[in-house]
Structures
1.
Amino acid sequence: MFDDLNLLIVIISLFWLGAFGFYLYTSRQQETIADEVEQLQKKLDKNDGQE
């Protein structure tokens, strides 16, 4: 009985580790995309001032 319980604990732990890893990956991607959008906005603002 405890063998099944141990397996369940391992599976749940792996799921939460994977979910946390996915969260870290997507949060870093979001920061990168936000920086790129900010750079593009600055370029657009700079070009609007030249026209």
2.
Amino acid sequence: MKSQILSEEIQFAHWLRQTKKNTWAKVLAFLSRDALPTLYPEIFPIPPEVTAASSQGWTNLCLFIVREDKKAFVLRGRPLGEGEDFRSVAYNKEAFILKTLRGKVPVAEVPEQPVTQGTLEGAPFGSGKQFVFMLQERLDGVPASELNLPFKEREWLLIQLGQTARAIHSINVDSFGPNFCVPKPGTIRERQGDFYNSVLALMRIDWLVSRGALDAVTAGFVRDRVELLKRAALKTDLYHNDFAYNWSNVLIDPSTRRLTGIIDWEFAGVGAAIYQEFSSLVYPAVRDGVSFRKASRALSHFLVGYGMSQEEFEVGHRFHFDTYLLIQAVQALRKYEELRESNQSSCEPWRRLFAVRARNLLDFLCHSPRDRTKIALER
């Protein structure tokens, strides 16, 4: 009975969140139509057709635009904060990535100046509210998530995604972290240390121990593993971080099963791309209730496309990969505990389930490798 009530709470919370997003997107579509010739005069000499995005995984104030010649675009926008410079927002990072990957990975084309700022007049934004916008072409294809592939029929897609990840990771950028377009002082190794220090701070390990959400032994284990990451000689490459498991960001031609596009680079960055990308396939699956065994099998198909043998992964990468899983599990606990502390856990009831599964994964990963193999076979 309790699980049924929780399921209904989760469904309602998701519905409410999506309804709010859809409403705001419709308002933004109505107000931005007449603003587009000012924002992008060479592309839209007259107001085009604008609708709220309703497919291809686009959310969060995204709009579909169709010009008179039927060329289609995606426009993304959000309000600028007080004193915020539009040149520092993540859209600039995404525009850089799309230009860099064009011809190497199926990504959208962007105009010469894809990111701009402008004013939208009217409710609910008030008078003179500044927005930042990003324009890109709209790619053909349907989200792979809509194919509803049974687990046994996903191998072909996972292999393609592994190949795509390899192409993305071939781009080396002299930086470290998600905000790599913002210049930072220091060497790569110094920035690597700063990045993992911020990860440790964000996890709030001592605070979780004080609340009884983490025991001291597990906390020490996780902290030691992240400290090792800080000192490791990591290869730093570009990564997407939200397509290996989140297939709403993967566009497919259903008739040919050909990958036609990778979209939404909001969470992209530069760093330990292998661990970032591989864990973004395995951890969300476990978080959503997929067994670790099944998630690992999906990773094995991904590795085939990536061009890495299972032995190479186990010997050369398993240790730090597991550390990335540990980090994500602790972060899930932290998010839930913060909601509990502020009496807002009912606003995102799925966080409770995520926290339970995170604890199970932490218990699993803190065993010795021999014990882990035994547990995996029993699950």
